Amino acid sequence: MFKVFLYGILIALGVLISLAEGWVPPIDGLHAWEAQILVGALGGLTVALFVTNLISLLQRQLAHEGGARRLAQGAFVSLIGALLGLAISWGLALLFPGNPLVRALQGLIVLILTVGGFVVGQRGEPLWAEPPKAPEPSPSPPLKLVDTSAIIDGRIGDLAKTGFIEGKIGIAEFILSELHAIADSSDNLRRRKGRRGLDILAELRRSSEIEVEIIAQDYPSILDVDRKLIQLAKELNAKIITTDYNLNKVAKVEGVPVLNINELANAVKPRFIPGEEIEVEVIDRGEEINQGVGYLDDGTMVVVENGRRFIGKKIKAIVNSSLQTEAGKMLFVRPKVEPVKW
Q1: Element (H, E) at 231
Q2: What does the alpha-carbon distance between residue 65 and residue 74 come to, in Å, rounded to a whole number?
Q3: Where are the beta strands (DSSP E) in the chain?
Q4: Would residue 86 count as lying in a domain?
Q5: Between residues 82 and 243, which one has the greater pLDDT?
Q6: Position 139 in a domain
Q7: Can you say how many angstroms the Cα of residue 102 is from the centroid of all Cα atoms in its chain?
Q8: Measured torsion, CA atoms of residues 134, 138, 143, 144, in degrees rounded to the nearest 10
């Protein structure tokens, strides 16, 4: 409906302008006013076709990426074409003053160069470079808060060296206080664990693979260190690295993400299938009669059937089955070569 209305308005406007200006001389078989109506209608129809096509082009261009740039480029070249058309028209008016055909030709030249400039401009190569898009910043990994058990455990240092821990590690000052208290304990074993934890922490702070931040925030009203750590993780939107089973459970209930080093260690242990051959050193007797016990390099406990007689020896064994427990994985094996019975 809009197109029909637009066509009618522009055709009527073209006829009125043609009649008012008297651009068209009489044509054979037609009166002057008839010729002017015909030419005006054709001119109005031409302008209407251009306008409707221009609107469709604008809609298509704006629907595509970079369309706005192409439209701006087309408008710029169109302006140059219009100025060039006006210059040519002015020259024709000087050469043929008062000629009505020249006056009609002037408008046609301006129209053609304006439209042609727009078409060429929006389809051609970019006249100016688009501004480079700023790279979107990648989200930084969340802060990891390390608890006392993970520091004393010692494996956190090895994990940091491998690069599996991304982002920054946070050590709360109340964790440091607890670690110093353990290192000063009268109990020899606790004291050794605490001092080892301080050594691990010193290595972490010297490491170039990971950044360590000491966090001074404390909660004097909260007495339990684990509760303090959970509260700090909530406020900083951080994760907790631990080996403590109870802290792991409580933190998950509180909705705090936990990275349990024990769970990671169990997940990366090699999987053994029944019938697979392994090599193990039998170091102790088992709970059952004639059982021997050994350990693989990753700490996996190996129960050797009829292995007590091999204590102190390294043997080849065949895997019977495996069992996953909260303490870790256990393998049940049998010696590959049974001893000769006399």
Answers
A1: helix 225-236
A2: 16
A3: 144-146, 168-172, 211-215, 239-242, 258-260, 277-285, 292-295, 301-304, 314-325, 328-335
A4: yes
A5: 243
A6: no
A7: 63
A8: -160
Together in a domain, 288 and 258: no
Question: Per residue in 308-320, pLDDT tens?
Answer: 889 989 999 999 9
The single residue listed with the structure tokens 């929006």 is: 122
Structural domain for 17, as ranges: 2-123
For the chain, report the end-to-end CA distance as a whole number of angstroms.
109
User: Is the CA virtual torsion 93, 94, 99, 101 positive or negative?
Assistant: negative
166 CB burial (10 A radius; 0-12, 13-18, 19+): exposed
Neighbour count for residue 280 (Cβ, 10 Å): 24
List phi, psi (to 5°) of 95: -75, -35
Contact (CB, 8 A) for 41 and 9: no
Go through 173-194 and write b for each residue having 16 or more CB atoms within 10 A of its CB, e for each that does not.
Answer: ebbbebbeebbeeeeeeeeebb
CA–CA separation, 17 and 108 (whole Å): 14
Query: Could you give the CA distance from residue 232 to residue 242 in angstroms, rounded to a whole number?
Result: 15
- The reply to whether 164 and 118 lie within a common domain is no
Q: Could you tell me which of 72, 64, 79 has the C-alpha nearest to residue 130?
A: 72
Q: Is the residue at 259 inside a domain?
A: yes
At 39, list the tokens.
Answer: 């030419």
The residue type at 129: A
Whether 234 is covered by a domain: the verdict is yes
Counting every residue written for the chain, the total comes to 342
Asked if residue 164 lies in contact with residue 139, where contact means CB atoms within 8 angstroms, the answer is no
Residue with tokens 């089973």: 245
Examine the domain organization and report whether 93 and 30 are in the same domain.
yes
Reported as a single tens digit per residue, the pLDDT across 273-289 is: 888 898 999 998 888 88
Cut 0.85: pTM above it: no
Amino acid (one-letter) located at 93: A
